[in-house]
Amino acid sequence: MKTVLVAEDRDSSRELLSIVLSAAGYRVVLAVDGEDALARMKETPVDIVILDIHMPRLDGFGVLRQLRADPAYSRIPVIALTASAMAGDRDSVIAAGFSEYISKPVNMSLLRREVARLLENGQ
Known about the structure:
The protein has one domain (3-121): Rossmann fold (3-Layer(aba) Sandwich). The protein contains five helices and five strands, in the order E-H-E-H-E-H-E-H-E-H. The chain has helices at 11-23, 34-43, 60-69, 89-95, 108-121, and strands at residues 3-7, 27-31, 48-52, 78-82, 100-103. It has a five-stranded parallel beta sheet, with helices on both faces. The protein is globular and about 35 Å long.
């Protein structure tokens, strides 16, 4: 069973993502912010990470920078979730090193497809 880490500061969003991904057959590890996400990854190996971009303490970009700089985590696919869906946002998120970009409100069938695709392709 593949493990998905979800880092999202909104309780309701985090729980919904957990329910949807668990129902799709994934083991889900939850984090309330970026620092929590990094700590949980040290405790539990994960296959893919879903990061809210705007979180307290350490945002999604900060988490991504640390993951990409660490050889143990540098190849893990990372999906960015953001409510900032302006023209050019997707390009800047992908250029920063995220594997995929999904805008909020999250289309759950799209999220499931992208998680499956990235896990299948290994990035």
